[in-house]
Amino acid sequence: MSILGLKKKQPKTFKVKVITMDAEMEFSCEVKWKGKDLFDLVCRTVGLRETWFFGLRYTVKDTYAWLKTEKRVLDQEVPKDSPITFHFLAKFFPEKVEEELVQEITQHLFFLQVKKQILDEEIFCSPEASVLLASYAVQAKYGDYEPNFHKPGFLAQDELLPKRVLMQYQMTADMWEEKITAWYAEHRGIARDEAEMDYLKIAQDLDMYGVSYFAITQNKRDTDLLLGVDAQGLHIYSPNSKLNPNKSFPWSGIRNISYSEKEFTIKPLDKKKDVFKFYSSQLRVNKLILQLCIGNHDLFMRRRKVDSIEVQQMKSQAKEEKARKKVERQILAREKQMREEAERAKEEMERRLFQLQDEARLANEALLRSEETADLLAEKAQIAEEEAKLLAHKAAEAEQERQRIEATALKTKEEKRLMEQKMREAEQLAVKLVEQSERRSKEADHLKQDLTEAKDAERRAKQKLLEITKTSYPLIAAYSPPPPPPEGGDLALGSGSMRIDFKDSDMKRLSMEIERERLEYVEKSKHLQDQLKELKSEIESLKLEEQQQQQAGVYSLRNEARGYPPEQPYMPHSNRNSAYMAQMAFFEEV
Predict the structure, then answer these.
(1) DSSP state of 161
(2) Which of 6, 426, 472, 524 is the most buried (most CB within 10 A)?
Protein backbone atom coordinates (compact mmCIF):
# COMPACT_ATOMS: atom_id res chain seq x y z
CA MET A 1 0.00 0.00 0.00
CA SER A 2 1.41 3.34 -0.97
CA ILE A 3 1.76 6.28 1.28
CA LEU A 4 -0.79 8.16 -0.78
CA GLY A 5 -3.28 5.43 -0.15
CA LEU A 6 -2.88 5.88 3.58
CA LYS A 7 -4.04 9.52 3.43
CA LYS A 8 -7.67 10.14 4.13
CA LYS A 9 -9.69 11.58 1.37
CA GLN A 10 -10.42 15.30 1.98
CA PRO A 11 -14.17 16.06 2.23
CA LYS A 12 -15.72 18.41 -0.26
CA THR A 13 -16.56 21.89 1.09
CA PHE A 14 -18.39 25.07 0.09
CA LYS A 15 -18.03 28.68 1.20
CA VAL A 16 -20.59 30.40 3.40
CA LYS A 17 -20.75 34.09 4.46
CA VAL A 18 -22.84 34.86 7.53
CA ILE A 19 -23.83 38.49 8.20
CA THR A 20 -24.83 39.40 11.73
CA MET A 21 -26.06 42.82 12.88
CA ASP A 22 -22.54 43.98 13.69
CA ALA A 23 -20.13 41.64 11.86
CA GLU A 24 -19.53 39.44 8.84
CA MET A 25 -18.09 35.92 9.07
CA GLU A 26 -17.00 33.38 6.46
CA PHE A 27 -16.93 29.63 6.98
CA SER A 28 -15.88 26.61 5.01
CA CYS A 29 -18.62 23.95 5.35
CA GLU A 30 -18.69 20.34 4.35
CA VAL A 31 -21.12 19.33 1.71
CA LYS A 32 -22.86 16.88 4.03
CA TRP A 33 -23.51 19.50 6.73
CA LYS A 34 -27.07 20.03 7.77
CA GLY A 35 -28.55 23.39 8.63
CA LYS A 36 -28.06 22.63 12.34
CA ASP A 37 -24.31 22.16 11.88
CA LEU A 38 -23.91 25.58 10.29
CA PHE A 39 -26.24 27.25 12.79
CA ASP A 40 -24.39 25.76 15.77
CA LEU A 41 -21.07 26.89 14.31
CA VAL A 42 -22.33 30.45 14.00
CA CYS A 43 -23.77 30.43 17.54
CA ARG A 44 -20.48 29.13 18.98
CA THR A 45 -18.56 31.78 17.08
CA VAL A 46 -20.82 34.57 18.31
CA GLY A 47 -20.96 33.13 21.82
CA LEU A 48 -24.76 32.80 21.82
CA ARG A 49 -26.56 30.27 24.01
CA GLU A 50 -30.16 31.49 23.61
CA THR A 51 -30.31 29.96 20.17
CA TRP A 52 -34.08 29.39 20.01
CA PHE A 53 -34.75 33.02 19.09
CA PHE A 54 -32.48 33.09 16.03
CA GLY A 55 -32.12 31.58 12.62
CA LEU A 56 -30.27 31.83 9.31
CA ARG A 57 -32.28 33.64 6.65
CA TYR A 58 -31.61 33.66 2.93
CA THR A 59 -33.27 35.21 -0.11
CA VAL A 60 -35.27 33.12 -2.58
CA LYS A 61 -36.47 34.94 -5.69
CA ASP A 62 -38.84 37.71 -4.46
CA THR A 63 -39.20 36.46 -0.87
CA TYR A 64 -37.07 35.07 1.94
CA ALA A 65 -36.85 31.75 3.80
CA TRP A 66 -35.25 30.37 6.96
CA LEU A 67 -32.66 27.61 6.81
CA LYS A 68 -34.09 24.33 8.10
CA THR A 69 -31.92 22.68 10.71
CA GLU A 70 -32.87 19.04 9.95
CA LYS A 71 -32.04 19.16 6.24
CA ARG A 72 -28.69 19.43 4.51
CA VAL A 73 -27.75 22.95 3.55
CA LEU A 74 -27.22 22.28 -0.11
CA ASP A 75 -30.47 20.33 -0.39
CA GLN A 76 -32.49 23.44 0.39
CA GLU A 77 -33.35 26.31 -1.97
CA VAL A 78 -30.28 28.30 -1.00
CA PRO A 79 -28.60 30.58 -3.58
CA LYS A 80 -25.99 28.97 -5.75
CA ASP A 81 -23.55 31.80 -5.25
CA SER A 82 -20.14 31.32 -3.73
CA PRO A 83 -19.97 32.13 -0.94
CA ILE A 84 -23.58 31.50 -0.02
CA THR A 85 -24.88 34.46 1.96
CA PHE A 86 -26.98 34.01 5.11
CA HIS A 87 -28.25 36.65 7.57
CA PHE A 88 -28.12 35.69 11.23
CA LEU A 89 -31.28 37.34 12.61
CA ALA A 90 -33.89 37.01 15.32
CA LYS A 91 -36.59 34.72 13.97
CA PHE A 92 -38.87 34.84 17.02
CA PHE A 93 -39.39 37.69 19.48
CA PRO A 94 -39.95 37.44 23.24
CA GLU A 95 -43.12 38.69 24.91
CA LYS A 96 -41.19 40.40 27.71
CA VAL A 97 -37.60 41.19 26.84
CA GLU A 98 -36.51 41.91 30.42
CA GLU A 99 -37.59 38.43 31.62
CA GLU A 100 -36.70 36.26 28.60
CA LEU A 101 -33.45 37.73 27.28
CA VAL A 102 -30.76 36.44 29.58
CA GLN A 103 -27.41 36.88 27.85
CA GLU A 104 -25.96 40.28 27.12
CA ILE A 105 -25.07 39.24 23.56
CA THR A 106 -28.71 38.26 23.01
CA GLN A 107 -29.88 41.66 24.21
CA HIS A 108 -27.31 43.38 21.99
CA LEU A 109 -28.33 41.47 18.85
CA PHE A 110 -32.02 42.16 19.50
CA PHE A 111 -31.22 45.84 20.13
CA LEU A 112 -29.35 46.23 16.84
CA GLN A 113 -32.08 44.40 14.85
CA VAL A 114 -35.02 46.32 16.35
CA LYS A 115 -33.14 49.62 15.93
CA LYS A 116 -32.55 48.87 12.24
CA GLN A 117 -36.22 47.91 11.73
CA ILE A 118 -37.31 51.22 13.30
CA LEU A 119 -34.90 53.27 11.19
CA ASP A 120 -35.95 51.37 8.04
CA GLU A 121 -39.60 52.07 9.03
CA GLU A 122 -40.43 48.36 9.20
CA ILE A 123 -41.72 49.20 12.70
CA PHE A 124 -43.82 52.33 13.01
CA CYS A 125 -42.65 54.69 15.77
CA SER A 126 -44.01 58.12 16.76
CA PRO A 127 -41.66 61.14 16.68
CA GLU A 128 -41.63 61.46 20.47
CA ALA A 129 -40.78 57.78 20.97
CA SER A 130 -38.19 57.99 18.19
CA VAL A 131 -36.34 60.82 19.97
CA LEU A 132 -36.41 58.92 23.29
CA LEU A 133 -35.18 55.69 21.66
CA ALA A 134 -32.44 57.66 19.89
CA SER A 135 -31.25 59.05 23.23
CA TYR A 136 -30.90 55.50 24.63
CA ALA A 137 -29.04 54.44 21.47
CA VAL A 138 -26.63 57.35 21.95
CA GLN A 139 -26.15 56.40 25.63
CA ALA A 140 -25.37 52.81 24.60
CA LYS A 141 -22.82 53.99 22.03
CA TYR A 142 -21.10 56.97 23.70
CA GLY A 143 -21.63 56.38 27.41
CA ASP A 144 -22.30 59.27 29.79
CA TYR A 145 -22.79 62.73 28.34
CA GLU A 146 -19.77 65.02 28.79
CA PRO A 147 -20.39 68.63 27.68
CA ASN A 148 -16.68 69.30 27.30
CA PHE A 149 -16.21 66.24 25.08
CA HIS A 150 -19.53 65.90 23.26
CA LYS A 151 -19.53 69.18 21.39
CA PRO A 152 -22.42 70.25 19.12
CA GLY A 153 -22.34 68.21 15.93
CA PHE A 154 -20.98 64.98 17.45
CA LEU A 155 -24.11 63.12 16.26
CA ALA A 156 -23.91 64.41 12.69
CA GLN A 157 -22.67 61.06 11.30
CA ASP A 158 -25.12 58.86 13.25
CA GLU A 159 -28.44 57.67 11.86
CA LEU A 160 -30.81 57.96 14.81
CA LEU A 161 -34.28 58.89 13.48
CA PRO A 162 -36.49 57.47 10.71
CA LYS A 163 -36.64 59.52 7.53
CA ARG A 164 -40.40 59.82 7.92
CA VAL A 165 -39.93 61.63 11.25
CA LEU A 166 -37.26 63.91 9.78
CA MET A 167 -39.52 64.89 6.89
CA GLN A 168 -42.60 65.28 9.06
CA TYR A 169 -41.23 68.35 10.84
CA GLN A 170 -39.40 71.33 9.40
CA MET A 171 -36.45 71.06 11.74
CA THR A 172 -32.73 71.18 11.05
CA ALA A 173 -30.27 68.46 12.04
CA ASP A 174 -28.93 70.71 14.80
CA MET A 175 -32.42 71.11 16.26
CA TRP A 176 -32.97 67.33 16.28
CA GLU A 177 -29.55 66.83 17.85
CA GLU A 178 -30.41 69.35 20.56
CA LYS A 179 -33.61 67.47 21.41
CA ILE A 180 -31.85 64.10 21.49
CA THR A 181 -28.98 65.51 23.59
CA ALA A 182 -31.46 66.90 26.13
CA TRP A 183 -32.77 63.35 26.76
CA TYR A 184 -29.30 61.86 26.45
CA ALA A 185 -27.98 64.04 29.29
CA GLU A 186 -30.61 62.58 31.64
CA HIS A 187 -29.36 59.00 31.14
CA ARG A 188 -26.11 59.62 32.99
CA GLY A 189 -24.86 56.57 34.90
CA ILE A 190 -26.68 53.98 32.73
CA ALA A 191 -24.41 51.22 31.40
CA ARG A 192 -24.50 50.05 27.79
CA ASP A 193 -26.47 46.82 28.44
CA GLU A 194 -28.95 48.72 30.60
CA ALA A 195 -29.44 51.39 27.89
CA GLU A 196 -30.05 48.67 25.28
CA MET A 197 -32.55 46.91 27.57
CA ASP A 198 -34.38 50.21 28.17
CA TYR A 199 -34.49 50.68 24.40
CA LEU A 200 -36.05 47.20 23.92
CA LYS A 201 -38.56 47.71 26.74
CA ILE A 202 -39.88 50.80 24.95
CA ALA A 203 -39.77 49.16 21.52
CA GLN A 204 -41.69 46.02 22.57
CA ASP A 205 -44.77 48.20 23.23
CA LEU A 206 -44.89 49.37 19.60
CA ASP A 207 -47.73 47.92 17.54
CA MET A 208 -45.55 46.46 14.77
CA TYR A 209 -42.83 45.05 17.07
CA GLY A 210 -42.02 41.39 16.28
CA VAL A 211 -44.78 40.98 13.69
CA SER A 212 -44.15 39.23 10.35
CA TYR A 213 -46.64 40.32 7.67
CA PHE A 214 -47.90 38.27 4.70
CA ALA A 215 -50.36 39.16 1.96
CA ILE A 216 -53.39 36.83 2.01
CA THR A 217 -56.92 36.65 0.67
CA GLN A 218 -60.05 35.40 2.34
CA ASN A 219 -61.10 33.86 -0.98
CA LYS A 220 -59.22 32.89 -4.10
CA ARG A 221 -59.94 36.11 -5.99
CA ASP A 222 -59.36 39.02 -3.61
CA THR A 223 -56.01 40.08 -2.07
CA ASP A 224 -57.16 42.60 0.42
CA LEU A 225 -55.89 41.23 3.74
CA LEU A 226 -52.66 40.94 5.70
CA LEU A 227 -51.72 38.12 8.06
CA GLY A 228 -49.53 38.99 11.00
CA VAL A 229 -47.62 36.37 13.00
CA ASP A 230 -45.99 37.29 16.34
CA ALA A 231 -45.39 35.95 19.84
CA GLN A 232 -49.01 36.59 20.85
CA GLY A 233 -50.77 34.79 18.00
CA LEU A 234 -52.22 35.43 14.53
CA HIS A 235 -53.77 38.74 13.46
CA ILE A 236 -55.75 39.78 10.41
CA TYR A 237 -55.17 43.36 9.12
CA SER A 238 -56.52 45.59 6.43
CA PRO A 239 -53.95 46.16 3.68
CA ASN A 240 -53.62 49.86 4.54
CA SER A 241 -53.36 49.43 8.30
CA LYS A 242 -50.68 47.40 10.01
CA LEU A 243 -51.29 48.88 13.45
CA ASN A 244 -54.76 47.79 14.50
CA PRO A 245 -55.81 44.21 13.55
CA ASN A 246 -59.38 43.50 12.41
CA LYS A 247 -59.31 40.07 14.02
CA SER A 248 -56.89 38.24 16.31
CA PHE A 249 -56.32 34.59 17.17
CA PRO A 250 -54.19 34.20 20.30
CA TRP A 251 -52.10 31.08 20.59
CA SER A 252 -54.04 30.06 23.65
CA GLY A 253 -57.29 30.07 21.61
CA ILE A 254 -56.08 28.11 18.57
CA ARG A 255 -56.68 24.35 18.46
CA ASN A 256 -55.06 23.57 15.13
CA ILE A 257 -53.46 25.20 12.07
CA SER A 258 -53.19 23.36 8.79
CA TYR A 259 -52.74 24.09 5.12
CA SER A 260 -53.30 22.32 1.88
CA GLU A 261 -51.24 23.80 -0.88
CA LYS A 262 -52.41 27.49 -0.80
CA GLU A 263 -55.27 27.19 1.65
CA PHE A 264 -54.80 27.80 5.36
CA THR A 265 -57.22 26.74 8.05
CA ILE A 266 -57.30 28.09 11.63
CA LYS A 267 -59.42 26.07 13.98
CA PRO A 268 -60.31 27.86 17.24
CA LEU A 269 -60.16 26.04 20.54
CA ASP A 270 -63.79 26.98 21.05
CA LYS A 271 -65.69 24.69 18.71
CA LYS A 272 -68.63 27.09 18.64
CA LYS A 273 -66.54 29.65 16.74
CA ASP A 274 -66.22 29.46 13.00
CA VAL A 275 -63.15 28.07 11.32
CA PHE A 276 -61.14 30.83 9.61
CA LYS A 277 -59.69 30.09 6.18
CA PHE A 278 -57.45 32.20 4.01
CA TYR A 279 -55.32 31.77 0.92
CA SER A 280 -51.77 32.60 0.10
CA SER A 281 -50.39 33.18 -3.38
CA GLN A 282 -47.29 30.96 -3.11
CA LEU A 283 -46.61 27.56 -1.63
CA ARG A 284 -43.24 28.79 -0.36
CA VAL A 285 -45.01 31.52 1.59
CA ASN A 286 -47.40 28.98 3.10
CA LYS A 287 -44.47 26.90 4.32
CA LEU A 288 -42.89 30.02 5.85
CA ILE A 289 -46.13 30.97 7.59
CA LEU A 290 -46.52 27.49 8.98
CA GLN A 291 -42.90 27.45 10.14
CA LEU A 292 -43.34 30.75 11.99
CA CYS A 293 -46.62 29.62 13.50
CA ILE A 294 -45.06 26.41 14.84
CA GLY A 295 -42.02 28.21 16.27
CA ASN A 296 -44.00 31.00 17.96
CA HIS A 297 -46.49 28.51 19.37
CA ASP A 298 -43.70 26.33 20.78
CA LEU A 299 -42.13 29.36 22.48
CA PHE A 300 -45.54 30.44 23.75
CA MET A 301 -46.02 27.05 25.39
CA ARG A 302 -42.42 27.01 26.63
CA ARG A 303 -42.88 30.31 28.49
CA ARG A 304 -45.78 28.81 30.41
CA LYS A 305 -43.62 25.93 31.67
CA VAL A 306 -40.84 25.75 34.21
CA ASP A 307 -37.49 26.73 32.80
CA SER A 308 -35.16 23.96 31.83
CA ILE A 309 -31.95 23.26 33.72
CA GLU A 310 -29.98 24.94 30.95
CA VAL A 311 -32.10 28.10 31.10
CA GLN A 312 -31.94 28.17 34.89
CA GLN A 313 -28.15 27.89 34.76
CA MET A 314 -27.98 30.66 32.19
CA LYS A 315 -30.22 32.91 34.28
CA SER A 316 -28.15 32.20 37.37
CA GLN A 317 -24.93 32.89 35.53
CA ALA A 318 -26.45 35.99 33.99
CA LYS A 319 -27.58 37.19 37.40
CA GLU A 320 -24.12 36.62 38.86
CA GLU A 321 -22.60 38.30 35.85
CA LYS A 322 -24.89 41.30 36.23
CA ALA A 323 -24.09 41.51 39.94
CA ARG A 324 -20.37 41.30 39.18
CA LYS A 325 -20.66 43.93 36.48
CA LYS A 326 -22.70 46.10 38.79
CA VAL A 327 -19.98 45.89 41.43
CA GLU A 328 -17.37 46.58 38.78
CA ARG A 329 -19.37 49.55 37.54
CA GLN A 330 -19.69 50.85 41.07
CA ILE A 331 -15.96 50.45 41.60
CA LEU A 332 -15.34 52.03 38.22
CA ALA A 333 -17.74 54.86 39.02
CA ARG A 334 -15.99 55.39 42.36
CA GLU A 335 -12.59 55.36 40.71
CA LYS A 336 -13.90 57.66 38.00
CA GLN A 337 -15.29 60.00 40.61
CA MET A 338 -12.01 59.91 42.55
CA ARG A 339 -10.10 60.48 39.33
CA GLU A 340 -12.37 63.38 38.44
CA GLU A 341 -11.94 64.81 41.92
CA ALA A 342 -8.18 64.34 41.63
CA GLU A 343 -8.22 66.01 38.22
CA ARG A 344 -10.32 68.84 39.59
CA ALA A 345 -7.92 69.16 42.54
CA LYS A 346 -5.00 69.08 40.10
CA GLU A 347 -6.64 71.69 37.93
CA GLU A 348 -7.36 73.77 41.01
CA MET A 349 -3.75 73.43 42.16
CA GLU A 350 -2.51 74.31 38.67
CA ARG A 351 -4.88 77.24 38.56
CA ARG A 352 -3.70 78.29 42.02
CA LEU A 353 -0.07 77.84 40.93
CA PHE A 354 -0.65 79.98 37.85
CA GLN A 355 -2.43 82.51 40.03
CA LEU A 356 0.47 82.57 42.50
CA GLN A 357 2.94 82.88 39.64
CA ASP A 358 0.94 85.77 38.25
CA GLU A 359 0.78 87.35 41.70
CA ALA A 360 4.54 86.89 42.14
CA ARG A 361 5.19 88.38 38.71
CA LEU A 362 2.89 91.29 39.48
CA ALA A 363 4.57 91.73 42.87
CA ASN A 364 8.02 91.80 41.24
CA GLU A 365 6.81 94.29 38.68
CA ALA A 366 5.24 96.36 41.47
CA LEU A 367 8.52 96.18 43.41
CA LEU A 368 10.49 97.37 40.39
CA ARG A 369 7.99 100.12 39.82
CA SER A 370 8.20 101.05 43.51
CA GLU A 371 11.98 101.27 43.32
CA GLU A 372 11.78 103.37 40.18
CA THR A 373 9.10 105.48 41.83
CA ALA A 374 11.25 105.89 44.94
CA ASP A 375 14.22 107.08 42.87
CA LEU A 376 11.97 109.39 40.93
CA LEU A 377 10.40 110.71 44.11
CA ALA A 378 13.84 111.33 45.63
CA GLU A 379 14.86 113.25 42.53
CA LYS A 380 11.58 115.14 42.59
CA ALA A 381 12.06 115.87 46.30
CA GLN A 382 15.47 117.36 45.56
CA ILE A 383 14.06 119.41 42.72
CA ALA A 384 11.14 120.47 44.93
CA GLU A 385 13.56 121.53 47.67
CA GLU A 386 15.50 123.65 45.20
CA GLU A 387 12.28 125.07 43.84
CA ALA A 388 11.15 125.80 47.41
CA LYS A 389 14.36 127.75 48.05
CA LEU A 390 13.93 129.62 44.79
CA LEU A 391 10.30 130.32 45.61
CA ALA A 392 11.26 131.52 49.08
CA HIS A 393 13.78 133.89 47.52
CA LYS A 394 11.22 135.07 44.99
CA ALA A 395 8.64 135.40 47.77
CA ALA A 396 11.02 137.68 49.67
CA GLU A 397 11.55 139.75 46.53
CA ALA A 398 7.83 139.78 45.92
CA GLU A 399 7.26 140.95 49.48
CA GLN A 400 9.72 143.79 48.98
CA GLU A 401 8.06 144.69 45.69
CA ARG A 402 4.67 144.51 47.39
CA GLN A 403 5.85 146.87 50.12
CA ARG A 404 7.28 149.20 47.45
CA ILE A 405 4.01 149.04 45.52
CA GLU A 406 2.05 149.67 48.70
CA ALA A 407 4.23 152.71 49.41
CA THR A 408 3.76 153.89 45.84
CA ALA A 409 0.05 153.24 46.18
CA LEU A 410 -0.06 155.25 49.39
CA LYS A 411 1.84 158.06 47.68
CA THR A 412 -0.48 157.89 44.74
CA LYS A 413 -3.48 157.95 47.05
CA GLU A 414 -2.06 161.07 48.78
CA GLU A 415 -1.48 162.71 45.40
CA LYS A 416 -4.96 161.72 44.37
CA ARG A 417 -6.37 163.19 47.54
CA LEU A 418 -4.51 166.45 46.96
CA MET A 419 -5.65 166.56 43.34
CA GLU A 420 -9.23 165.91 44.35
CA GLN A 421 -8.97 168.65 46.96
CA LYS A 422 -7.52 171.09 44.38
CA MET A 423 -10.20 169.98 41.94
CA ARG A 424 -12.87 170.78 44.47
CA GLU A 425 -11.22 174.16 45.11
CA ALA A 426 -11.02 174.77 41.34
CA GLU A 427 -14.69 173.83 41.02
CA GLN A 428 -15.56 176.22 43.82
CA LEU A 429 -13.44 178.91 42.15
CA ALA A 430 -15.13 178.23 38.84
CA VAL A 431 -18.52 178.48 40.50
CA LYS A 432 -17.48 181.80 42.03
CA LEU A 433 -16.19 183.05 38.69
CA VAL A 434 -19.38 181.99 37.00
CA GLU A 435 -21.40 183.80 39.66
CA GLN A 436 -19.16 186.87 39.31
CA SER A 437 -19.46 186.66 35.52
CA GLU A 438 -23.22 186.50 35.81
CA ARG A 439 -23.17 189.42 38.24
CA ARG A 440 -20.91 191.44 35.93
CA SER A 441 -23.17 190.50 33.03
CA LYS A 442 -26.14 191.84 34.96
CA GLU A 443 -24.18 195.00 35.81
CA ALA A 444 -23.31 195.36 32.14
CA ASP A 445 -26.96 195.01 31.27
CA HIS A 446 -27.81 197.70 33.81
CA LEU A 447 -25.05 199.91 32.39
CA LYS A 448 -26.39 199.30 28.87
CA GLN A 449 -29.80 200.29 30.09
CA ASP A 450 -28.41 203.43 31.78
CA LEU A 451 -26.44 204.18 28.62
CA THR A 452 -29.54 203.84 26.57
CA GLU A 453 -31.44 206.10 28.92
CA ALA A 454 -28.54 208.61 28.82
CA LYS A 455 -28.53 208.52 25.01
CA ASP A 456 -32.24 209.12 24.99
CA ALA A 457 -31.82 212.07 27.41
CA GLU A 458 -28.93 213.38 25.28
CA ARG A 459 -31.02 213.04 22.16
CA ARG A 460 -33.89 214.89 23.77
CA ALA A 461 -31.48 217.58 25.14
CA LYS A 462 -29.93 218.00 21.70
CA GLN A 463 -33.32 218.32 20.16
CA LYS A 464 -34.36 220.91 22.65
CA LEU A 465 -31.06 222.73 22.29
CA LEU A 466 -31.54 222.89 18.56
CA GLU A 467 -34.95 224.31 19.05
CA ILE A 468 -33.61 226.97 21.44
CA THR A 469 -30.76 227.74 19.12
CA LYS A 470 -33.07 228.29 16.22
CA THR A 471 -35.30 230.71 18.13
CA SER A 472 -32.54 232.77 19.76
CA TYR A 473 -29.90 232.80 17.04
CA PRO A 474 -29.91 236.61 16.51
CA LEU A 475 -29.35 237.27 20.11
CA ILE A 476 -26.47 234.85 20.34
CA ALA A 477 -24.78 236.34 17.34
CA ALA A 478 -24.77 239.81 19.02
CA TYR A 479 -23.01 238.63 21.95
CA SER A 480 -19.45 237.38 22.21
CA PRO A 481 -18.77 233.68 22.42
CA PRO A 482 -19.49 232.07 25.71
CA PRO A 483 -16.77 230.92 28.05
CA PRO A 484 -15.77 227.21 27.86
CA PRO A 485 -17.90 224.83 29.77
CA PRO A 486 -16.65 223.41 32.98
CA GLU A 487 -14.98 219.97 33.07
CA GLY A 488 -17.56 217.33 32.93
CA GLY A 489 -19.20 218.48 29.70
CA ASP A 490 -22.44 219.65 31.26
CA LEU A 491 -24.37 222.67 30.09
CA ALA A 492 -26.80 224.69 32.23
CA LEU A 493 -29.91 225.59 30.32
CA GLY A 494 -32.29 228.15 31.58
CA SER A 495 -32.71 228.53 35.16
CA GLY A 496 -33.11 224.82 35.93
CA SER A 497 -30.54 222.25 37.03
CA MET A 498 -30.53 220.14 33.78
CA ARG A 499 -27.00 219.07 32.67
CA ILE A 500 -26.30 217.78 29.05
CA ASP A 501 -23.15 216.01 27.80
CA PHE A 502 -22.02 217.58 24.56
CA LYS A 503 -18.97 215.16 24.03
CA ASP A 504 -20.09 212.10 22.07
CA SER A 505 -16.63 210.62 22.03
CA ASP A 506 -16.57 210.27 25.80
CA MET A 507 -19.87 208.48 25.84
CA LYS A 508 -18.74 206.08 23.12
CA ARG A 509 -15.49 205.38 24.90
CA LEU A 510 -17.30 204.56 28.12
CA SER A 511 -19.68 202.28 26.33
CA MET A 512 -16.85 200.47 24.58
CA GLU A 513 -14.94 199.93 27.80
CA ILE A 514 -17.98 198.47 29.48
CA GLU A 515 -18.62 196.15 26.52
CA ARG A 516 -14.97 195.11 26.37
CA GLU A 517 -14.89 194.29 30.08
CA ARG A 518 -18.06 192.23 29.75
CA LEU A 519 -16.62 190.27 26.81
CA GLU A 520 -13.40 189.66 28.69
CA TYR A 521 -15.35 188.22 31.63
CA VAL A 522 -17.38 185.97 29.31
CA GLU A 523 -14.27 184.70 27.55
CA LYS A 524 -12.47 184.06 30.83
CA SER A 525 -15.49 182.19 32.13
CA LYS A 526 -15.62 180.01 29.00
CA HIS A 527 -11.89 179.31 29.19
CA LEU A 528 -12.23 178.39 32.85
CA GLN A 529 -15.01 175.88 32.01
CA ASP A 530 -12.77 174.27 29.38
CA GLN A 531 -9.93 174.04 31.86
CA LEU A 532 -12.23 172.41 34.42
CA LYS A 533 -13.31 169.76 31.85
CA GLU A 534 -9.70 168.99 31.01
CA LEU A 535 -8.91 168.74 34.70
CA LYS A 536 -11.76 166.24 35.24
CA SER A 537 -10.64 164.10 32.29
CA GLU A 538 -7.07 164.18 33.59
CA ILE A 539 -8.25 163.10 37.06
CA GLU A 540 -10.25 160.21 35.54
CA SER A 541 -7.24 159.05 33.55
CA LEU A 542 -5.11 159.24 36.71
CA LYS A 543 -7.67 157.09 38.54
CA LEU A 544 -7.65 154.49 35.72
CA GLU A 545 -3.85 154.43 35.65
CA GLU A 546 -3.81 154.01 39.42
CA GLN A 547 -6.11 150.96 39.16
CA GLN A 548 -3.94 149.48 36.40
CA GLN A 549 -0.88 150.18 38.51
CA GLN A 550 -2.41 148.31 41.48
CA GLN A 551 -3.43 145.35 39.28
CA ALA A 552 0.02 145.29 37.71
CA GLY A 553 1.53 145.20 41.21
CA VAL A 554 -0.68 142.26 42.19
CA TYR A 555 0.14 140.34 38.99
CA SER A 556 3.82 141.04 39.54
CA LEU A 557 3.61 139.60 43.05
CA ARG A 558 1.81 136.47 41.78
CA ASN A 559 4.24 135.94 38.91
CA GLU A 560 7.24 136.29 41.16
CA ALA A 561 5.62 133.89 43.67
CA ARG A 562 5.17 131.33 40.81
CA GLY A 563 8.66 131.85 39.53
CA TYR A 564 7.86 133.87 36.38
CA PRO A 565 10.25 136.70 35.33
CA PRO A 566 9.22 140.09 36.72
CA GLU A 567 7.77 142.72 34.41
CA GLN A 568 9.03 146.30 33.98
CA PRO A 569 8.56 148.32 37.19
CA TYR A 570 5.85 150.92 37.34
CA MET A 571 7.04 154.41 36.54
CA PRO A 572 4.93 157.20 38.04
CA HIS A 573 3.71 159.87 35.65
CA SER A 574 5.92 162.66 36.98
CA ASN A 575 5.57 164.72 33.82
CA ARG A 576 1.79 164.58 33.93
CA ASN A 577 1.83 165.49 37.62
CA SER A 578 4.07 168.48 36.85
CA ALA A 579 1.69 169.64 34.11
CA TYR A 580 -1.18 169.16 36.46
CA MET A 581 0.53 171.26 39.19
CA ALA A 582 1.27 174.00 36.65
CA GLN A 583 -2.38 174.09 35.58
CA MET A 584 -3.46 174.28 39.24
CA ALA A 585 -1.07 177.21 39.79
CA PHE A 586 -2.56 178.93 36.75
CA PHE A 587 -6.06 178.45 38.13
CA GLU A 588 -4.98 179.86 41.49
CA GLU A 589 -3.57 182.91 39.75
CA VAL A 590 -6.80 183.32 37.86
Answers:
(1) S
(2) 426
Q: Does 71 show up as a binding residue in the annotation?
A: yes
Answer yes or no: is 347 a known binding residue: no
CA distance 238 to 331: 54
556-567 pLDDT, tens digit per residue, is 555 555 555 544
| Among 215, 218, 219, 242, residue whose Cα is nearest residue 227 | 215
pLDDT at 425 over 90: no
CATH number of 212-304: 2.30.29.30
Average of per-residue pLDDT across 362-374: 90
Return the closest-CA partner of residue 105 out of 90, 118, 121.
90
Which residues, in sequence order, are CB contacts of 41 under 8 Å at separation 6+? Answer: 27, 29
Say what the pTM is: 0.58
At 187, give phi and psi (nearest 5°). -95, 20
Annotated binding residue 408 = no
d(CA 193, CA 102): 11
Which residue has better confidence, 557 or 448?
A: 448
> Which CATH architecture does the domain made up of 13-90 adopt?
Roll (3.10)
Specify the 3-state DSSP secondary structure of 297. helix
Q: How far is CA 192 from the centre of its chain?
A: 43
